[in-house]
Amino acid sequence: MSWDEFIHIVANVVIWIAYFCFIVVALRNIIALLQLLLAGWVFATRVRPGKGARDLWHRYADLALPISVIAPAYNEELSIVQSVRALLALEYPEHEVIVVNDGSKDRTLDTLIEAFGMKKTERTQIAHLQHTRILGVYRSKRYPNLLVVDKENGRKADAANAGIGFARTPLVCVIDADSIIEPDGLLRAAEPFMYDDDRLVAVGGAIRIVNGCIVKGGSLHRMGIAKEMIPRIQIVEYLRAFLMNRVANAHLNTLMLISGAFGLFRRSTIVEMGGYRHDTVGEDLELVVRMHRFLRNKRRDYRIAFVPDIVCWTEAPAALKGLDNQRARWQQGAMETLQRHRGMIFNPRYGRIGMIAMPQIVLEDILGPPAELLGYLVLPAAALLGLLDPMMALAFFFVSIVFGCALSVGTLALEEQQLRRTPSARDLLRIGVAAIVENFGYRQINLWYRLYGIVRFFRKDSTWAAVPRVGFTEG
């Protein structure tokens, strides 16, 4: 092979890579635009205005199924008492709180025993879903609906499984111990179950960033916006994820993810499936994908719903350190799930899940991140070398950056029009600025973190890198 032939082959490869990157990024953004339009239509025609807790209670108190709120906890001694008080105070006709101490190395268990007068009790575990040993079960003398399960460390999925095994109620709500459920959040999330025909198996709810808000007694006292830019940008990301992506997908019956921070499930279905998997770092995505697969293989008629009203607040990484671990873990979890359930992709047996939802995850989580990151490098270089028309490199910039800004601002407008939960016009402007700034640096760094998640997947690295927390701002 001559040098000229080699150069010609390399040039063709670069051109094909450039076109591939452009097509993948364009497809992702076209899908996002369609989701935004569909979400806007759903809000305008289908979603009813959020009811107050009093109205919900008046309408549905006699229909509300009992719920067990399961809170896995690991080294949460500083905030666990406030978190449990908030869970006990939730406005719901009948709910039990099951805190699962997942082998904490600090005083989480002792703090719970002292604060709530916990005493050892005998309670049969009716479903053994966890892989680790139960060390003890405690019930509060002051709060009959508070149960604490002490177990060996096995990570969140194992702790959630232990709690599900001790639950006696038809519905179980799995949350992060450091998340804050709004007082009427459980009522809002449970509302779809109250007029269900036994088809509904799971409900997800919208989640917002608590950074910058004032927390008092374990409950949200006043909404606010963080001073740091990183949490502000994550507000935009969460708005896109919950108000755009999940509202649209739920309407199409293709919802594939219920956040690990808050999810409400029919207990019998979870138990029949064997609970959460222990061998993945993305247990929340894997559970819902497996739920679709399990129920379609059983040929059951089912539904997974989403409540766009905010039901839960969670702390986001306040700096890039911490965000890297989180995003790499999300990426790795998505790839583990796709590998495990690859037989569903483009499989007509699974209907719209196999033909639409699973390919969309492939586009978003396998092809998308490396294609966009590579595109930022290859297209400008190819244009400078004369291999591509410079207008194509400009078009890539428009599709990835300008279009991305437009989608974020459009989602923010949708939130302001429908939910109006931003505290003030000044805060709305701050979030709007974050929606623009996100596309110039943050987005590219985030792609790099996701690329690292791909590397972790191929290395089969199962270590759990914790995300640093700064704690809630107390009022």
Relevant terms:
single chain; alpha/beta; 10-stranded mixed beta sheet; 3-stranded mixed beta sheet; 13 strands; 54% helix
Strand portion: 15-25%
The helicity comes to 40-55%
Helix count? Answer: 13
- Distance N terminus to C terminus? 73 Å
Q: What structural class is derived from the secondary structure elements? A: alpha/beta
Rg on CA atoms, Å: 23 Å
Order of helices and strands: HHEHEHEEEHEEHEEEHEHHEHHHHE
Taking the sheet with the most strands, its summary is: 10 strands, mixed
Global geometry = globular
How would you describe the overall organization of this protein?
- With 475 residues, this protein is α/β, with parallel strands linked by helices.
- It has 13 helices and 13 strands.
- It has a 10-stranded mixed beta sheet, sandwiched between helices. The protein has a 3-stranded mixed beta sheet with strand order 10-9-13.
- α3 (80-88) links the parallel β1 (67-73) and β2 (95-102).
- The longest helix is centred in the first third of the chain and has 43 residues, at 3-45.
- The chain is globular, with a radius of gyration of 23 Å.
- It starts with a helix and ends with a strand.
- The model has no long low-confidence stretch (mean pLDDT 89).
